[in-house]
Design a protein that fits this description.
The complex is a heterodimer of chains A (126) and B (462). Chain A is built from 5 helices and 5 strands; from the N terminus they run E-H-E-H-E-H-E-H-E-H. Chain A is an alpha/beta fold and 126 residues long. The longest helix of chain A is centred in the N-terminal third of the chain and has 13 residues, at 14-26. Chain B has helices at 11-22, 34-43, 60-68, 85-93, 106-125, 141-155, 170-179, 198-206, 223-226, 242-254, 280-285, 291-297, 313-329, 338-346, 352-367, 380-400, 415-433, 438-445, 449-458, and strands spanning 2-7, 26-31, 48-52, 54-55, 58-59, 75-80, 98-101, 160-163, 188-192, 207-208, 220-221, 231-235, 256-257, 266-267, 271-276, 300-303, 335-336, 372-373. In chain B, the strands form 6 sheets. Chain B has a 5-stranded parallel beta sheet, with helices on both faces. In chain B, strands 9-12-15-8-16 form a 5-stranded parallel beta sheet. A two-stranded antiparallel ribbon of chain B has the order 4-5. The chains are: A alpha/beta (126), B alpha/beta (462).
Chain lengths: 126, 462
């Protein structure tokens, strides 16, 4: 069984909600869990006590560089995880900041989210 | 002074070669049989061995593999009175340095020795850099061999391909090579070829300009450009679409490429590491993978072993993961019960390290507040597999074990006497196969040095 672990900061703009809606529509049957603060995500990554084991994809919605920088500090906790990031822009510096997370794909946080959904679909089929 | 050993049953040849090498500032010695030669290599390792093919107690070509297993093995030059193309080919496959007919000129022997010594001086004066192996846990022989290969790969720039089953740690090895290489200050950029739908591969790798295709609302930098002065890691390279392979090969050769929709080329100086669990040569045969790209990728190959073939690494990995987990969660250290250790050793781990780690997370979760982990915390499918394994091993052991002879119950020795005999036989084989090398015997048997010495004393073996 595959699981989608989503991080969308509670301070994320409207595109965060649009992304969540898109995921809900496209992956209605996948088991998913949403974290709204980095602390909650970190706590879950440390303990994983809620029975979510096995194959999972972690999707990180970082619509600001500040948010990305905070996620970068949690990179060690995501070692060995399948990570997808949505970034505020595709500038070289922004992409470089995302590299410690070793993302399988990086898309735009501003949408459209078709590319990210296509990647998730392919990863779920593995 | 460099040492040279000649192994040949013809003493005249031995003396002749020893005399030839005298003016070369080397210390030449000879042995007249393979067994004597092996003992000499083990006790007083030479830099180069001249090895005859037909020896009274064995074949020199067959012995190459054994000699190469010695720590710091010598270079081997085969000398023969009867030239045989097949034998020469086998010798080269087994990594002999040279193959020289005995009837050849003296200069042939001297030149070969000079070249072998020069090569050895070069390789031995440049120490191999260590591999940054923070995340590579284990001490098995097969893993250590891969670590040595990775350390060599880190020291140069050739493309590396890492193969192995899913979950064996291909990405961790790739990262370790990057971290230990001169490019460690650059980025380690991952391209997961298996995760990318075909229509996204090209733009992800090479980047695209704004408006290059429908949906390209913004320009995007490609991962190949991002890996400039760093390492590009192509995970599951076997999934790279055929249509992209040609463009990728060109970029690999020329270190420049054109983003989708762009008219100008971009340069990127990246080092390539690839990984796959698929048989790429088979894919080449089926025309599913380009042959030219295949040869380009196969400069250096590291084959990672499955977890089941890594001796006691499963326990080292378990302890490492449990202590890391305890540190992260602030929980007290978990204790691994010996019974659980046995179960973990017995299971075959088809999902390798990834499966082990997921299983340990489950085990800890199932243990709740308990700090000692027992077999009953394991997922049922693993327990069921192990039970079946125990039952079948038990019955086949009963059927095939060498049983003490005797037709009646009274003729049977006591259990202790039978076990003592088996243990002594095992220790004798161990000493023979490792040629009395105690560290090697400890590695093979899994016994500690102290335990091994105790047993040798107990069974009066030297």
């Amino acid at each position: 069984m595959h699981n989608l672990i989503l991080f969308i900061d509670s301070a994320a703009g409207s595109s965060g909600n649009r992304f969540l809606d898109t995921i809900d529509q496209r992956f209605a049957t996948a088991s998913s869990k949403v974290f709204r603060t980095i602390r909650d995500l970190e706590n879950w990554l440390r303990k994983k006590e809620d029975g979510i084991f096995g194959k999972r994809i972690i999707v990180l919605f970082a619509d600001t560089r500040a948010c990305l920088e905070q996620l970068e500090t949690s990179a060690d906790l995501m070692d060995g995880e399948q990570v997808i990031v949505l970034l505020p822009d595709q500038e070289k510096q922004t992409l470089e900041k995302a590299q410690p997370l070793r993302p399988r794909y990086s898309g735009f946080a501003s949408g459209p989210f078709d590319d990210v959904c296509d990647v998730i679909t392919k990863m779920l089929r593995r | 002074m460099d040492k040279v050993l000649i192994i040949d049953d013809d003493e005249q040849i031995c003396r002749f070669l020893s005399r030839c090498f005298k003016d070369m500032d080397v210390e030449a010695d000879y042995r007249l049989s393979l067994a004597e030669g092996m003992a000499q290599i083990s006790q007083n390792p030479p830099a180069v061995v001249f090895l005859d093919v037909f020896l009274p107690d064995g074949n020199g070509i067959d012995a190459i593999r054994t000699i190469r297993k010695f720590p710091d093995p010598p270079e081997i030059i085969i000398i023969t009175g009867s030239e045989d193309p097949d034998g020469a080919e086998t010798a080269m496959h087994n990594k002999a340095w040279d193959y020289i007919p005995k009837r050849g000129a003296v200069s042939n022997f001297k030149d070969a020795l000079n070249r072998a010594l020069e090569y050895r001086r070069q390789t031995h004066t440049v120490p191999l850099p260590g591999l940054s192996r923070d995340n590579i846990i284990g001490d098995s022989r097969r893993l250590n061999r891969c670590i040595d290969q990775a350390a060599k790969a880190a020291a140069n720039e050739v493309p590396v391909i890492i193969t192995g089953e899913t979950g064996t740690g291909k990405e961790i090895f790739s990262k370790a090579i990057h971290d230990s290489s001169p490019r460690c200050r650059g980025d380690f950029v991952v391209v997961d070829c298996a995760a990318l739908p075909d229509h996204l591969v090209e733009s992800t790798l090479f980047g695209h300009t704004k408006g290059a295709f429908t949906g390209a609302d913004n320009a995007k930098i490609g991962l190949m450009a991002l890996a400039d002065r760093g390492t590009l890691f192509l995970d599951e390279v076997g999934e790279l679409p055929l249509a992209i392979q040609k463009k990728f090969l060109r970029a690999l050769q020329e270190k420049k490429f054109r983003p989708v929709g762009s008219k100008t080329e971009i340069r990127s100086d990246f080092r390539l590491i690839c990984a796959t669990h698929r048989d790429l040569s088979g894919m080449v045969a089926k025309k599913e993978f380009r042959e030219d790209l295949f040869f380009r990728l196969f400069s250096a190959k590291i084959q990672l072993p499955p977890l089941k073939d890594r001796d006691d690494d499963v326990i080292l990995l378990t302890r490492h993961h449990l202590s890391k987990k305890a540190r992260l969660t602030g929980a007290p250290d978990w204790t691994l019960s010996p019974e659980l250790g046995e179960e973990l050793r017995m299971y075959t781990w088809p999902g390798n390290i990834r499966e082990l780690i997921n299983t340990l997370d489950l085990v800890c979760s199932d243990a709740g507040q308990g700090t000692t982990l027992f077999p009953h915390h394991l997922p049922p499918h693993i327990r069921a597999f192990n039970i079946r394994e125990k039952l079948s091993t038990g019955s086949s052991a009963m059927a095939s074990a060498p049983m003490p002879s005797g037709d009646t119950v009274d003729a049977l020795p006591t259990f202790k006497a039978h076990m003592d005999k088996s243990k002594k036989a095992y220790l004798e084989s161990l000493l023979t196969l490792t040629r009395g090398n105690i560290p090697e015997a400890c590695r093979c048997s899994g016994l500690s040095r102290a335990h091994l010495y105790r047993l040798l004393q107990q069974y009066e073996l030297k």
